[in-house]
Structure prediction request, 196 residues.
Amino acid sequence: MAMHEVTFPVTDPAAILKLRAGDEVVVQGHIIGIRDRTQIRIFDQGAAPPMDLSGAFLLHTAPNVRKLGAGRYEKICIGTTTSARMVRFTEGLGERYGVRAICGKGGFPDEAIEPMQRLGMVYLAIVGGAAALETTQIEEIEEVAWEDLMPECLWKFRVKDFGPLTVGIDTHGNSLYHDVQDRAKTKLEELYARFQ
Prediction:
């Protein structure tokens, strides 16, 4: 296991290729908050995202914020939501828009492994219940788009030392989630065999 610091958006694919499942990552720069309704608007309703997603790090979130004025928000609590239900958008995010990292809770199922490998993407896992820490690592909400979807808008956050995160799926076809499922299946088969 190695520790990496990556600044987003990334312009050099090598920054993502060097990440291996199980490695830890601390993120600098900018991350974009996204959630179900935002991706439904992009992919099911055909609306082009109003932010540049090239080289982006996407965080599955719908933050709790306080409005300060037109297009300006103060962070209150910015947590992370479960990713698995949004796996169907993964390929499009990488292929059409050049997204390089997706972060959330609970991991992605096996169907994400092949497109992430082919498109040079990673899934970064964050510990559930870490919203208070995440919020302190977000320095500012710099931009918000599609406010009618509040709180499932597109959010641009400036971050410092965001993480540490764990590489759950890498660009080389490795997935910690797949490995855990394999080990659990083997263990269950051993247990069942004892009772036969």
User: Anything to note?
Assistant: The domain at 3-194 is CATH 3.20.130.10 (fumarase). DSSP finds six helices and nine strands in the chain.
